[in-house]
Write a structure and sequence with these properties.
The chain contains eight helices and twelve strands. It has 222 residues and is an alpha/beta fold.
């Protein structure tokens, strides 16, 4: 899963980036509204953290522009502690949730997980396909109750496919959602990760749809 942070406070922005990367996300960081709007309009993200008090272009304007452009990416806005008017304005402009500063990073991450789940039609924090379980809260993966150790990129790929279970996901889409902007993206590595996941979870867990991409389906009879 790939996230965009738009935050002009350097310490807070880097703190959030480190925490979210530690939680298994690919993260891009923009430090003003102009850059944030550009990235949100031209790159693919699973969710955005948007501060409202930004230089160049304020957060509400950025959000309003995205929505008018047809961008439906879930957006969590950061507001001042007691600014109820900012909360109302953000929600009216198209935000999906908000967190008031100062906040606990754990709460922000939990809210992001919920936004991403809801956007992909998943209500539970635990994603399942047959006897495979991925707990988005702990980052643990099990098969038939046994823990399975995945690398960070294998986890990201499996998580994205589970969030979009039953759908065909192209290599390009996977690349856009599991790597951050600065990563050297190579489509051949996707096949490597898929092969590794099949070795750990079973040869039929991910289906290759020739010419289209990959699909993770609920096993027949499950």
């Amino acid at each position: 899963m790939r996230l965009l942070i738009v935050e002009d406070e350097p310490n807070l922005g880097q703190q959030l980036r480190n925490a979210l990367e530690g939680a298994g996300y690919a993260v891009d960081l923009a430090t003003d509204g102009e850059e944030g709007h550009f990235l949100g309009s031209t790159e693919q993200y699973d969710a955005v953290i948007l501060d409202l008090g930004l230089p160049e272009i304020d957060g509400l304007t950025v959000l309003d522009r995205w929505r008018k452009e047809g961008k439906t990416t879930p957006v969590l806005v950061l507001t001042a502690r007691d600014s109820w008017s900012d909360k109302v304005a953000g929600l009216d402009a198209g935000a999906d949730d908000y967190v008031a500063k100062p906040f606990q990073t754990e709460e922000l991450i939990a809210r992001l997980r919920a936004l991403i789940r809801r956007a992909s039609g998943n209500a539970s924090a635990e994603l399942m396909a047959g006897d495979i379980r991925l707990d988005t809260r702990s980052g643990k993966v099990t098969k038939a109750g046994e823990p399975i150790k995945l690398t960070a990129q294998e986890y990201k790929l499996l998580s994205y496919l589970l969030h979009h279970k039953g759908k065909v996901v192209s290599r390009t889409e996977l690349i856009e959602h599991i790597y951050d902007q600065d990563f050297d993206r190579d489509s051949n590595t996707i096949e490597v990760f898929v092969t590794r996941i099949r070795k750990k979870l079973g040869p039929d867990v991910i289906t290759t749809i020739r010419g289209l991409g990959y699909s993770l389906e609920e096993p027949a009879g499950a």
